[in-house]
Amino acid sequence: MDEWTLRNSYESSLGEVRWDRLGDPGGQPLVLLHGTPFSSLIWRHVARALTTTPRPAVRRLVYVFDMPGYGTSAMTEAQDLSLDALAGVFAELIDHWGLTSPDVVAHDSGGAVALGAHVDRGVPYRRLALVDAVSLPPWGSEFFALVGEHTEIFRRLPGPLHRAMLREYVITASSPGLRPDVLDALTAPWLGADGQAAFYRQLAQRRADLTYIDRIRDGYPAIDLPVLVCWGADDSWVPAERGRELAALIPGAEPHLIDGAGHLLPEDRPAELTAALLTFLDAAH
C-alpha cells in the first residue's frame, strides 16, 4: 500500500499529535478529520487528489492529523478521549497552524468533533463537509454496542483473538470490502498491548458521548455557512437516514448519497467523494 507518514508533531493538551501538510502553500487551507476507530490514513487518496487537481482554483493546502489516542499520535491510559476533549484539541491545532477560516471535511466521529468545535467553541470555518458523520443518535454497529457494555472483558482478550475480531469489525465499515494490505494498515494501530487497550478505550468513550451530541445538536440550526452532507448509501454503521436528518437540521445543507459505498466512504469510493468535494468547494469561487 502507498506509504502514509505524518512528518510533524504538536504537543497538545492530550499528548503528542502527529500531523502533516500537503499541497500548494498558497492554496485555500482545508483540514481533514478522521473518526473512530480510524486515522488520517483513510484520507490519503482524497488528500492527494485535492492537492494535485489540474484546476488551480480549487487546489487546496491540506492539513491531516491523527487525533490523540489514534493512529500514530499518543495513546495513554489517562487520556480524555471524549468528543468534547477532542474538539478542544482540534481548536488548539487550528490556532497552532494559524488558520482563520479553513475548509473542513470530517468523517465519522470527526464530524462531531468539527461540529462541536464550531457550534460549541466558535471555531470559524469557510465551508464544512460532513461525511458519514456521527452527529445524531443512534450510531454504531452491534459490535460497537456490545463492546461498549463489556469493555473490560474485551480488553483482556488474547492478542490473536482480539486481532481476528478487530479485522472482522473494521471490514463491516466497507461495502465493497477492503484489500488485505489496507485492512492491515487500518488495524495496525490497535494491535499489541497498548494498541489493544487504546482500541477498547476509545470505543467505550464513544458510547459515553451521547450527552455531548445532545448539547451540540441544538446548535445545528444556527450554523451559517455552506455545508455538504455526504454519505455512503450502504452505510451500516451510521445509516443514510441519519444523513438526511442531519441535512434537514442545518439551514441550506446539501445532502449527497454515493452508491456502492459503506461507512468508509473515503476508502470505498474516493474518486466519487473527491468529485463531490470539488464541486462543493468550487462553488465558493
Automatic annotation (TrEMBL):
Source taxon at top rank: Bacteria
Keywords: Hydrolase
Keyword rRNA-binding: no
Leader sequence segment: none
InterPro entries hit by this protein: AB_hydrolase_1, AB_hydrolase_fold, Carboxylesterase_BioH
Residue span(s) of domain AB hydrolase-1: 30-275
One family name in Pfam for this protein: Abhydrolase_6
GO MF annotations in UniProt: hydrolase activity
The keyword Hydrolase is assigned to this record: yes
Designated name of the protein: Alpha/beta hydrolase
Source organism phylogeny: Bacteria, Bacillati, Actinomycetota, Actinomycetes, Streptosporangiales
